[in-house]
Amino acid sequence: MMKKLLNSLPGRLLGFASRCGFGGGGCAGGAVVASRTLHIIFCHELMILFVANMGKHTDSVDSQVLLRIHSHGPGWVFTPSDFADTGSRTAVATALKRHKAAGTIRLLGRGLYDVPRAHPVLGTLWPSIESVSQALERKDGIRLQPTGVYAANLLGLSEQVPATVVFLTDGATRSVKVGPLLIRLTRTTPRNMAGAGRLSGLLIQAFRSLGADHISSQRIARLRQSLPAQERARVLQDLALAPEWMHVYLREVAQP
Description:
By secondary structure, this protein is an alpha+beta fold. It has helices at residues 2-7, 61-72, 89-101, 129-140, 148-154, 190-193, 199-210, 217-226, 229-234, 247-254; strands at residues 12-17, 30-34, 38-43, 48-53, 77-78, 106-109, 112-114, 117-119, 123-125, 144-146, 164-169, 174-178, 181-187. The strands form four sheets. The protein has a four-stranded antiparallel β-sheet. A four-stranded mixed β-sheet has the order 10-11-13-12.
């Protein structure tokens, strides 16, 4: 119903946002409409329309940057390159500086920003590791493969959250500091990156971190219960990417 209403407005439906950015921590969904005279953001939780009459400034970089920020909402991590289509680097930098001064966004590090998330007890939160890694992938056109304890944590095989998170990458080796978290990108071989973005790559790195002595039947059962059968079956296609000692465990995970 909301989509039908927004489509009837004199604008162009840009899409539904995962979080609209209003109502404190942001609601569970929203939508954004843009036209030559209006910018409209609908807050699903608060049931309100945020309407901005942009007039002749509709195409200004500042308004487009703000619109994109609100469409993603709290928790979004981004870099200036995410706004490359809105204007020149100087214009984008000026817009981000203005929105940072207004408190709409936060500077995390050199060229890395986020839309802060607020918690009623803990206050302003740091962004998730996943959000930061996605921003880095978009900015540099690289792939990142979680490794070590972090890979095991993503699969529910470990409750540890390391202070330093290591990703393998096909890009340059470097470190990124975000609040108390240090993210290290380590350049590796094409073979180690062959499973990046797939369950097999995550399993291989998690098992390597745990070691054969700590891959118990209970952990295998947990993986089989939590992971979709179709995804588990695809792991068999990447057996050649894993050390031979892992094959027996990967086959157990992949069983229907």
